[in-house]
Amino acid sequence: MTTRLITALLTGSSLLACAGAALAQDKTLTIESWRNDDLAIWQEKLIPAFEKANPGIKVVFSPSAPTEYNAALNAKLDAGSAGDLITCRPFDASLDLYTKGHLADLSSLPGMENFSDVAKSAWQTDDGKATFCVPMASVIHGFIYNADAFQQLGITPPATEAEFFAALDKIKADGNYIPMAMGTKDLWEAATMGYQNIGPNYWKGEEGRLALIKGEQKLTDPQWVEPYATLAKWKDYLGDGFEAQTYPDSQNLFTLGRAAIYPAGSWEISGFNTQAQFKMGAFPPPVKTAGDTCYISDHTDIAVGLNAKSPNADAAKTFLSWVASPEFATIYANALPGFFSLNNAAVKMEDPLAQEFVSWREKCKPTIRSTYQILSRGTPNLENETWVESANVINGTDTPQVAGEKLQKGLDAWYKPAK
């Protein structure tokens, strides 16, 4: 065999070896996120499950501090150094990323059919024609209660407003518990745990929310003012000094067993499970009249999208389709009880309190917080103004009617509904 032939054969073998090595090289996807608390869950549960089913694709979860995430992400995107996958906050922050060309359109991604229009609404263009993030989880509003206290006092979870206030009266008369743990000092608590919690039963969830965006309803209409009238009645049940009570104060009053009812978001579940030394239960916002349709704030909270400039787009889309699957939904929702899958597939929850919250989806119509889509883009910001007025109404410094008038006047100052 000639030297030239041997050299050619060896060269060919080297090329084949290199080609084989290239084929065997794993693609590595990096996820940008603000949820640094979830690092262990991704590393120990989610990523191993995906990599086992998808050999050849590796995933790295690379979170930033929550308060720094938006700025850090934008800087990376502008510099071209951002990860392949972008964890998406709801509504305007992510819409801005899409508008700037940083997020890819995922409308036709396999698996996106597993989500309802409400689930996708936080990560769509205003016209609904493009969806740019795969919904991961929502939080649900309602009331968490001290089940031991209810049993002692012979109270069953209320289904109507009359039953709700009768329960509060009974707890107050007994004197061993503050009827309800909520303060107004931090403002947002009064709106998020109060107005946005009970309000959907009045404005009929999506029907009212979308009508407000279209300009067909106003915040001075009865269905938007009446929840404030109900909130004003809460004042008598919040305990002494609630005006100076912060959100952590409210959490502590409940978990220490000093309050019987806590107006809640489901994100409290994990913390309360470790802190409360008593059995807990939960009930949805009571309806006005027995037999009324119930509505819950099933608020879209977190999603994940594709960096439009990712060099690994195909592998990233494989990952995103997995995020859209029932398998991911089950692992994620059980790893983080209180952050509920937005997937249409039923997810069996292991945590009993989380299971109670998510069961309301079977009997109540879902909606999202009324101020989050479109209506808080201007000045004054409707979300922030709703915080102020919710606190004012509970404190007794504004009437429900005045609150509605102030909010509508502020909205009218900058918002002109599209006709």
UniProtKB/TrEMBL annotation:
PROSITE patterns, per the entry: PROKAR_LIPOPROTEIN
Subcellular location: Periplasm
Signal recorded as keyword: yes
Primary localization: periplasm
Signal peptide span: 1-24
Pfam families (UniProt xref): SBP_bac_8 (PF13416)
Domain of life per record: Bacteria
Keyword hit for DNA-binding: no
Keywords, comma-separated and alphabetical: Periplasm, Signal, Sugar transport, Transport
GO terms for cellular component: periplasmic space
Xref: InterPro entries: Bact_solute-bd_prot1, SBP
Functional note: Part of a binding-protein-dependent transport system for a sugar.
Family: Belongs to the bacterial solute-binding protein 1 family.
Record's protein name: Probable sugar-binding periplasmic protein
Organism: Kumtagia ephedrae
